[in-house]
Amino acid sequence: MDMTLPRNAAGQLMSLDGEPLAVQLKRQQRLKTVRALLLIAPLAVFLLAVFILPIAGLLKRAVDNPEVVGTLPHTVVALQDWNGKAVPGETAFAALARDLERAHADKTVAQAAKRLNMEIAGSRSLLTRTARHMPLDPAAGPLKTQFVDIDERWNDPAIWHAIARNGSSYTPYYLLASLDMRVGDSGQVERMSADESAYLSIFGRTLWMGVVITSLCILLGYPIAYWLANLPTRKANLLMIVVLLPFWTSVLVRVAAWIVLLQSEGLVNSGLMALGLINEPLQLAFNRVGVYVAMVHILLPFVILPVYSVMKSIPPTYLRAAVSLGSHPIGAFWRVYFPQTLPGIAAGGLLAFIISIGYYITPALLGSPNDQMVSYYVAFYTNNTINWGMAAALGGLLLLATMALYAVYSKLVGANRLSLG
């Protein structure tokens, strides 16, 4: 029976219903694509609603600056042509009087006052005190003189520079402050003085603590994973329950348990003193040692599981073959076995590092003020001072560092796969 498909005049294969076969195949492919998109549409909408949009909204707050331009719009316009060398003229004072009168009536002075107070201490009291004297009487003399009589700081160009710098709805202030920089009166970006700088050292501390914690997790987790991978399946499964046990306990409970163990009169110091190893209690809690111990305990399973998974996929015959060919067992391990476990080490290390630099509870409870990481200050600005701009800027820079690290990891792992291939 001849099953050859017919062809049309152009030489195209035709289906049995007389339609070009290529057109029919493309339509079927489009239908499959549409069905696949419809299947993932609920997940895509969910991720967009609860993940992407909130993060985008938070990052927007890092550059959002509506307070001053919304409260003092006429003043901002009047300062556009200001040379910045001396106190502006009557036009700017008239615009400021108009804006403060309206803001006082609308009860919005506090918004601009709070924003300007971030740059110049005392701006809050300056604006609120001046707003209470509004409206001014133009017949009583120059407005500049009346403003200076209310508060002499209106004769200082610094406050006017602060208002002019905030003349846009978007500002680099929070991002620059997170990097210990600012925009000076000349409009140029400059580094803050040593007394005002803090965040670069906090970021450095965060990254360093993440490296130490990740290194300790790898050093402790690798031999445990190797031991589990070479045990009989039944014993390995039983011991794996011990590895997973921390996941079944609240982080807060685990930190509280470490406080009990590591404090001056805790079980660790009591045991060491009972054995005669120390004469006085060691300071193990409320410092960096306690933070390292508790966080390694929390993050160790995140390293063990990826490394164990990779090790289980490596045939044990590779090592035996290397030894049978004359290699020393230790040399065979480092040359044959260890390189194959690097993807698991990289995955576990990356996971532990990313989680560690974003941790808040453990350093806050077990660390000293000098052991707090970036996440502590994000929580501080969010919950205590309600400064969403600084919180978003610090969180955004931490997110950027995490994404950069993941990009480097992906590139290295991809290059490693290509070299192995």
Q: What would your notes on this structure say?
A:
The protein has 421 residues and is an all-alpha fold. It has 3 domains: 1-61; 66-171, no CATH class; 199-420, Orthogonal Bundle (MetI-like fold), CATH 1.10.3720.10. 68% of the residues lie in helices and 1% in strands. It has helices at residues 21-61, 66-71, 73-78, 90-106, 109-117, 123-132, 143-150, 157-165, 173-178, 199-229, 233-244, 251-262, 267-274, 288-312, 317-324, 329-357, 361-366, 374-383, 388-420, and strands spanning 181-183, 189-191. The chain has a two-stranded antiparallel ribbon. Strand 1 and strand 2 (189-191) form a beta hairpin. Helix 12 crosses helix 14 and helix 14 packs across helix 16. The longest helix has 41 residues, at 21-61. The mean pLDDT is 87. This is ABC transporter permease.
Could you write a compact summary of the structure shown?
The chain is mostly helical and 421 residues long. It contains 19 helices and 2 strands. It has a two-stranded antiparallel ribbon with strand order 1-2.
List the helices and strands and how they pair.
Layout: H1 21-61, H2 66-71, H3 73-78, H4 90-106, H5 109-117, H6 123-132, H7 143-150, H8 157-165, H9 173-178, E1 181-183, E2 189-191, H10 199-229, H11 233-244, H12 251-262, H13 267-274, H14 288-312, H15 317-324, H16 329-357, H17 361-366, H18 374-383, H19 388-420
Antiparallel strand pairs: 1-2
Helix pairs in contact: 1-19, 4-6, 5-6, 10-14, 10-16, 12-14, 14-16, 15-16, 16-19, 18-19
Family: Belongs to the binding-protein-dependent transport system permease family. CysTW subfamily.
Protein name: ABC transporter permease
Main location: membrane
